[in-house]
Amino acid sequence: MSDWYQQSENEVLEKFHVTKDGHTSEMAAELLEKKGENVLEGGKKKSTLQVFLSQFADLLVIILIIAAGISMFTGNQESTLVIVAVIILNAILGTVQHKKAEKSLDSLKSLSSPTAKVMRDGQKLEIPSKDVVPGDILLLEAGDLVVADGRILNSYSLQVNESSLTGESTSVDKSEMVIEGEVPLADRVNMVYSSSLVTYGRGVVVVTGTGMETEIGKIATLMNATKEKKTPLQVSLDQFSSKLAMVIMIICGIVFALSIYRKMPILDSLMFAVALAVAAIPEALSSIVTIVQAMGTQKMAREHAIIKELKAVESLGCVSVICSDKTGTLTQNKMTVQDVYVDGQVLRPDDIDIRNQLHRYLLYDAILTNDSTIVDGKGIGDPTEYSLVEMARKIDLREDIIRDMMPRLEEIPFDSDRKLMSTKYRLHGVPTLLTKGALDVLLDRTTRIRTSKGIRPMSDEDRKQILDQNLKFSENGLRVLAFAYREVEEDETISLESESDYIFIGLISMIDPPREESTAAVADAKRAGIRPVMITGDHKITATAIAKQIGIFEEGDLAVTGPELDAMSDEELDSKIRRISVYARVSPENKIRIVDAWQRLGHVVSMTGDGVNDAPALKKADIGVAMGITGTEVSKDAASMILTDDNFATIIKAVANGRNVYRNIKNAIQFLLSGNMAGILGVLYTSVMGLPIPFAPVHLLFINLLTDSLPAIAIGMEPAEKDLLAEAPRDPKEGILTKKFMTDILVQGALIAVVTMAAFHMGLNAGGGALASTMAFATLTSARLFHGFNCRSKHSIFRIGFRKNWYSLGAFAAGMILLNLVLFVPVLKRLFLVSALTAAQWGSIFLLAVIPTVIIQIVKIIREH
What H or E segment, with its residue span, contains residue 790? Predict the structure, then answer.
């Protein structure tokens, strides 16, 4: 039952057959047996072995296993060990990441308070929170964590912070009133919810829901039901793997059949097919993609974005919608006094003059009718109240000194029904009642107004001016408090009846201001083709005002509340969603629905959040972004990325990094595949022409696993180019293997194959098959090392420069050293089946190897001009 807030105290108590003295011990034990413990349950988990084995159900891994089998079959144990080591390492990394993700529900469970104060058998007891049952009478005090959902029976100035569930940063005043009609969770002031925190006062509550039947339990259920999605790169690599496997099998079959047809011995025919398969399989691809992503995560960590899952890095590159929380991400998560209205004027806080008696009375009211303070620069108490104390501190007025000078004589605490707080002090020797509260309530109790010219009766015109100013503040998303006072008799004991016949002093408006960098970050997002959307638990007017200030909300945009969203059909939401910039008063289900709607329209969605309530949406989004400072452990565990500075601008930096990582991965793949294409074309050419096999499988494994890996990693380290954020997000449906990409691979592979086969023929003419194979191997290796410079960027090497990426020069040098060790060290010469080379032959190899790079660079220069 979810409508407890619409029922009276007696109705709720009757439903649970309980009084305010609580359950009997026997009834509580019976209910605990029936309902189960007050804990959250997780979904059925896979064992570590199951997770580990599932890592091998990937086509790229299967291709690597085939490569290992082939290299073992051809007697290359060293190569087999390298490939097997790579496969196992990848599986271990995948298992560790999966197990980390499963911690999210464990963190949800750990939110439960270890103990709770309840009434049992008419006595106050402290029991483990897991033993709380529906119908228990829960006793709450300031500082308590609420351990179950409940309907309030008595509220004694009870205030609860529900930010982990609603996203609303300020504490909510609670009461026992019955609420008419349906209202969102954030407005159910007669209810408390599990995982929220009591910040002020005390209350008596009847428990209405425990465990999975609480609001936080519903969130846990949503998290269990939310499945993780594959990233666009994973989809592309899966498609590539399946296509590559099919092509390799077909071509190997054709080559094997052709060799048999030409009466070649079966072993020689098999060796041709094996050489072709090894040439085609990019053994290092999986490792290099992982390494490049890992390098990207390290760079992002230095820029305050911790990536939990490597696969999330490239997904950032195609984010087209960022759904951001307001409080703390776009704003400073700190209530701050914005404007002060006094003596008919709007002043900035800095303009208040302590020497002006009217201003001084307003300051006295603000810091004396106030229970908060600032200790070591940190506000303690209600955020709204300590924003008033901070305002006073800015003009060198310390609340602790004023309070010591003027002790509080009496008080009437804040009450959500009255919406007022009153305190009695002696100001300048005169007993005075100071009151702050909601303008609509206080203005009705005010008969006079104080101006710089003195105190006079309040006129209708005065009231109109004050109300007009309040409306202006409200339209700008400001929260407004009104201040008034009246002098009282020395012996008068203040009561609720005392709160009348006030003298109006002024208004103070507050806001959680936008971060300074938010406006620029939103502008960068829009320039990058990304749609920023604000999702908040705050009121629509406040949210819209902030969204306008930072550029999220523009002319013609829409703002909707959670209940308005609930009333929309999916079709209506799909038709309006591109115009909706602000969602206010939202529930966890609303957040998931918003993410789902954008994903339905083909967008890659990033969602930010810090509360328990955000966890399901963070998991549902393509990139879930949690706050590192204010975020709960649940949100951090559910997210793919954690911001250590809780800053929206960091997301945009991370998107730029994500785009660069994807571009570098794509360039590395182009480098690997174009080199492999040269090997494939070489093997096909010699097979068709009836020539000896040009490469031993060990040659191709040496190239693929050693000399190719270093340039590919260096390409992955290429810094971002300036035009990166000016481009639109890439289409996640567009695979890596586009027509242009495949054409470039084929053309570049053909150029390298031509010079490799030229060297092969030179070797055949000079000394037979062994020398021909050595020259082809050396030329292919060298040409691929030079080709690493071509694949750094779509621009020419002269435009991007050598010095921007020293790793590429280091990789080229290391590759050349490895090649020369194989060619000239006797032990390695025998191991890698190479013949001795003359200086002239080595010079020919070098000249042939550099030709493809010269041609490709000339074409790039022509395109640029």
Answer: helix 769-790
| Phi, psi values for residue 293, rounded to 5° | -65, -40
By DSSP bridging, strand 420-427 and strand 430-437 are antiparallel
Q: List 504's β-bridge partners, or say none.
A: 449, 484
Reply yes or no on whether the pLDDT at 228 is more than 70.
no
Mean pLDDT of 300-317: 77
Burial class for 90, CB neighbours closer than 10 Å (0-12, 13-18, 19+): buried
- For the cut 50, the answer to whether the pLDDT of residue 212 exceeds it is yes
Are the C-beta atoms of residues 255 and 684 closer than 8 Å to each other? yes
Quick: pLDDT tens for 811-827.
999 999 988 898 888 88
- Please report, for the chain, how many H helices and E strands are present, in that order: 33, 26
Q: Tell me 641's DSSP state.
A: E
Phi, psi at 773, each rounded to 5°: -65, -40
Q: How far is CA 711 from the centre of its chain?
A: 32
Nearest to 627 by CA among 515, 481, 717: 515
Kindly report the number of other CB atoms within 10 A of residue 865's CB atom: 6
* Residues across the chain: 865
Q: Which of 202-206, 392-396, 506-510, 658-662 has the lowest mean pLDDT?
A: 658-662
Per-residue pLDDT, 801: 80
Share of the chain above pLDDT 90, in %: 33
Q: Which residue is catalytic, options 325, 365, 462, 646?
A: 325
11: helix, coil or strand?
helix
**Residue 325 bears catalytic tag:** yes
Gap between the Cα atoms of 642 and 104, Å rounded: 14
pLDDT at 113: 42
Cα 224 to Cα 619: distance, rounded to the nearest angstrom: 10
pLDDT digits (tens, 9 = 90+) for 530-540: 999 999 888 88
Whether the model pTM is above 0.85: no
CA distance 786 to 778: 12
Q: How far is CA 311 from CA 231, 299, 308, 654, 861, in A?
A: 7, 15, 9, 14, 34
Distances (CA, A) of 150 to 69, 215, 239, 810, 860: 63, 11, 51, 65, 69
10 Å Cβ neighbour count for 715? Answer: 30
Q: How far is residue 360's CA from residue 861's CA, in Å, rounded to a whole number? A: 72
* Cβ partners under 8 Å of residue 742, min gap 6: none
Q: Report DSSP letters for 558-595, one per residue.
A: EEEEHHHHHTS-HHHHHHHGGGEEEEES--HHHHHHHH
Top mean-pLDDT range of 130-139, 257-266, 611-620: 130-139
Tokens 């592979």, residue located: 749
In tens, the pLDDT along 667-701 reads 988 998 898 889 888 888 887 887 887 877 677 76
Nearest C-alpha neighbor of 585 from the set 149, 159, 166: 166
> Tens digit of pLDDT for each residue in 436-462?
999 999 999 999 999 999 999 999 999
- Beta-carbon contacts of 537 under 8 Å, excluding residues fewer than 6 positions away, are 163, 166, 167, 168, 186, 327, 584, 585, 586, 613
